[in-house]
Design a protein that fits this description.
By secondary structure, this protein is of the alpha/beta class. Helix content is 31%, strand content 20%. It is built from 13 helices and 19 strands.
Length: 478
């Protein structure tokens, strides 16, 4: 059955979830399904949920309310719920929402075609058992009809799960224990992607630079994260390598050195700081202090002076005082982040911090969030302004939201919008641009006519070199 059956997936949350959606989509292609552009054309609707903060979790419940009508508008329509809320809530979702046909946890992505087939014959079920062996990484090759989100770019899973148990974070409960994938399988997947024309690979893992510290070393191969990067960097055709998200405590000398040595390792590291206060970091159970974080930044800059550092920050963590928050602002300035995501603390079920009665007043947390975001915006704008007049190359992702322009990212992960001429570059191509303007969210560029088709090496570009590292304003010296 099913060659004309169509699915649509709504995805919330992190890149790990986006990649799980890609995996489900690929599996469904192999099972004869095709992608629908929107809900109205779909026979199967999947919601890939996120529970990192309460707000994200609530999206599922508001979606499910609206989906009642979608489901009853045509016969045979199916609804499946996956991701972190599915892992957490399991049976409760099936019990509370009769419009849901099946629930699959974060370890059970592989079962989706089977769950769909069962649902077609009227069997509702939940599958969310933890899979602790390497079989969870066995997925079919990308189907010929399957398209990633952006041509030319792809995610590759290197490890899953998290054993860090930061006191605010639900991820160790929803994604389970840390497990690394054998290096040979990762390299083989990257080679296959390169052969299909992929130029940029993002290595994914909840604590990606902890790669190899656990299961994989027991009998498979003995490769740490830096060695894995070196292997991938050697694959012909891979022009850009990124990874997300690292944890500060797993930056060793070898990994910092790799940033100085590997031409195709992008000069951008997204390095969550969470707080600049040592007292708060200790209560968050981050296992490092502000000084240790700054040492990692220094080592990275020593190896690759133009590296752009971005971060995640939480305000209003239980017990955070004004002085603690000022410490966060101080470290933010000292690092000179090029960009940052900042969040108000949200208590999550079964986490240690959720039991802490020392709650920060919500208005105070809101004020801190606004102040932090203003500071981050100023840093981003300063970093962008320092780029004007320089050259770079962008990997085209598609049309820009600003009409008549293409959008792409440069090696520093900045969004660049560039006006196109008669023959605009296509998604997946790399195009040289000159930066002509800075805005708070992006750079504006002009495509340059090129004699040789493409420049692959980010270092040949101008305008992205440091102008006086450690500038007095603390802005990132791009
Ligand atoms: N409340 C607020 N922010 C959180 N994050 C993780 N858990 C919480 C929480 N309970 C943030 C962290 C993390 C990012 C992905 O989400 O900053 O790095
Ligand atoms: Fe959550 Fe901490 Fe693990 Fe990151 S390292 S996923 S913040 S528990």
């Amino acid at each position: 059955m099913g060659s004309s059956r169509r699915f649509h997936i709504r995805t919330y949350g992190c890149q790990m979830n986006q990649h799980d959606t890609e995996k489900v989509s690929n599996l469904l292609h192999h099972a004869g399904w095709r992608q629908a552009a929107e809900d109205a054309d779909a026979d199967l609707l999947l919601i890939n949920t996120c529970s990192i903060r309460e707000k994200a979790e609530h999206r599922l419940y508001s979606d499910l309310g609206l989906l009642r009508d979608w489901k009853s508008a045509a016969s045979g329509r199916l609804v499946g719920v996956g991701g972190c809320v599915a892992q957490q809530e399991g049976d409760a979702i099936l019990r509370r929402f009769p419009q849901v046909d099946f629930v699959f946890g974060t370890h059970n992505v592989r079962l989706v075609p089977e769950l769909v087939a069962a649902a077609e014959s009227g069997r509702r079920q939940v599958r969310r058992e933890e899979v602790r062996d390497l079989s969870r990484f066995d997925l079919p090759e990308r189907h010929p009809d399957w398209q990633g989100v952006t041509p030319g770019r792809a995610f590759v899973t290197v490890m899953e799960g998290c054993d860090m148990f930061c006191s605010f974070c639900i991820v160790p409960r929803t994604r389970g224990r840390e497990i690394s994938r054998p290096a040979a399988a990762i390299v083989a997947e990257a080679q296959e992607l390169a052969a299909r024309g992929v130029r940029e690979i993002t290595l994914l893992g909840q604590t990606v630079n902890a790669y190899g510290r656990h299961a994989v070393r027991r009998g498979h191969d003995d490769v740490g994260f830096a060695a894995l990067l070196r292997r991938i960097a050697g694959i012909p055709g891979i022009e850009r390598i990124r990874y997300t998200s690292p944890h500060p405590i797993f930056f060793d000398e070898d990994l910092c050195r790799a940033h100085g040595e590997l031409e195709n390792l992008c000069p951008h590291v997204h390095l969550p700081l969470q707080s600049g206060s040592d007292a708060v970091l200790a209560r968050m159970r981050r296992r490092h202090d502000a000084e240790a974080y700054l040492r990692v930044v220094e080592a990275l800059r020593h190896a690759r002076p133009d590296v752009a550092i971005t971060t995640d920050l939480i305000v209003g963590f239980p017990g955070e005082s004004d002085a603690d928050f000022r410490e966060t602002l101080r470290v933010v300035d000292e690092v000179g982040f090029v960009d940052g995501y900042s969040f108000k603390y949200s208590p999550r079920p079964e986490t240690v911090a959720a039991g802490d009665p020392d709650r920060v007043d919500p208005d105070v947390a809101q004020e801190r969030l606004a102040a932090l975001q203003e500071r981050l915006r100023a840093l981003t704008l300063a970093a962008h302004r320092a780029r004007v007049g320089g050259r770079t190359q962008i990997l085209i992702e598609g049309e820009s939201r600003r009409g008549g322009q293409v959008m792409g990212r440069d090696p520093w992960h900045r969004v660049v919008n560039a006006a196109t001429g008669a023959a605009p570059p296509q998604p997946g191509q790399v195009a040289p641009v000159r930066i002509v303007e800075a805005t708070p969210h992006s750079l504006i560029g002009q495509l340059e006519v090129k004699e040789t088709p493409e420049i692959a090496d980010g270092r040949e570009t101008e305008g992205c070199r440091p102008r006086g590292a450690g500038s007095p304003t603390g802005t990132f010296p791009l």
